[in-house]
Automatic annotation (TrEMBL):
Domain (NADPH-dependent FMN reductase-like) ranges: 4-37
Listed name of the protein: Iron-sulfur flavoprotein
Recorded family membership: Belongs to the SsuE family. Isf subfamily.
GO molecular-function term, one example from the UniProt record: oxidoreductase activity
Length: 130
């Protein structure tokens, strides 16, 4: 992660995504999110209040998840588990992108409409960050 910290600090935008595993993000994504801990500043009193070294810098994010089931409820906590930590760090999540009904590897690459929507979401974020 030490190499990624410099990249995260330099970037004004961040896109996080994860397949839904048992209503939540995958273990590697959870580990990545947990390792954003150095960006928090905590007070020494109880209850410990916190702020973020990344806040107030106009940072933006997109979060997305893919699940096999068709109902968005089957995604469970995934989009929140991706977006809420970023919001706590000072990012504005400009798009929460649920993708339902896909399981097989590479299946989304055959959906031209989905690819168009994802491209447009990325383009929108790039324009916001200019």
């Amino acid at each position: 992660m030490s190499l990624l910290y410099l990249e995260i600090e330099a970037a004004k935008g961040l896109i996080l995504g994860s397949p839904t595993y048992n209503y939540n993000v995958t273990a590697p994504m959870k580990a990545f999110i947990d390792r954003l801990y150095p960006y928090y500043n905590f007070t020494n009193d109880r209850l410990r209040r916190y702020s973020s070294r990344l806040a107030g810098q106009g940072r933006k994010a997109i979060v997305f998840s893919v699940c096999e089931q068709l109902e968005i409820e089957e995604m469970g906590f995934t989009l929140g588990a991706l977006g809420m930590p970023l919001e706590a760090l000072g990012y504005e999540v400009v798009e929460k992108f649920p993708v339902t009904g896909y399981f097989d590897r590479g299946a989304v690459s055959g959906d031209e409409e989905l690819l168009r929507k994802t491209f447009e979401a990325g383009k929108k974020m790039a324009e916001i960050l200019r």
